[in-house]
Amino acid sequence: MSASKLVVITGATRGLGRAMVERFHEAGWVVAGCGRSMAEVWNLNREFGKRHHFSMIDVSDGKRVESWAEEVCSKLGVPDLLLNNASLINRNSLLMELSPEEFTTVMNVNVNGVFYVCRAFLPKMVPDPEGRVIVNISSYWGRVGEAYVAPYCASKFAVEGLTQSLAQELPKGMAAVALDPGGSVGMSMLQACSPQDMAAAPSAQEWSRVAVPYIMSLSAKDNGKSLTCPPVR
């Protein structure tokens, strides 16, 4: 096992996840990340080298997540930081006009995926709990509802509740927090649901330069909190 700290990041191939990979790499951490695109996973492995470990994983596939967790822990050790970042947003739509399939797809990734990843990695983390942190990426829309994105809001509200419950189950020394990125970030998800906000939004790279040091500062004192990243100045 490397003496460097290990972070596991879901949704590591695009957006916030991709930017965070760079920041953790620069900080000297070892990164185990996953995404659903084989081409983008291959690009990450090519760019960042053998020190890190990137895999093609759909977090809504519980059995695949379990085998990935075993692989990561056997090759790299137990994560110091587990960062549930992978998520989808539905197309803008009235709730009554959404298909059951659209609703289920969002929930499978955004809620079930968080559950599967926590369930797979926590048994490795709990026996030696000191300093280990789980960060579940939430949203402003996980605390305040918004028209036309009801599935996404519902999923992020669920992440908030799941995190608060998990925090009460963890041993002393660990933490689970729900983290709102702190406003709009200029990436494909924002373009899809709120394109009028793109021009004023910071890029994922700009956001990560503020967010990753903040995430690295989290500790057991933050257990159970619903936090918001500091703003990008």
Automatic annotation (TrEMBL):
Highest rank taxon of the organism: Bacteria
PROSITE patterns according to UniProt: ADH_SHORT
Family as reported in the entry's similarity comment: Belongs to the short-chain dehydrogenases/reductases (SDR) family.
Protein source organism: Brevibacillus parabrevis
One Pfam family of this chain: adh_short
The protein's name: Short-chain dehydrogenase
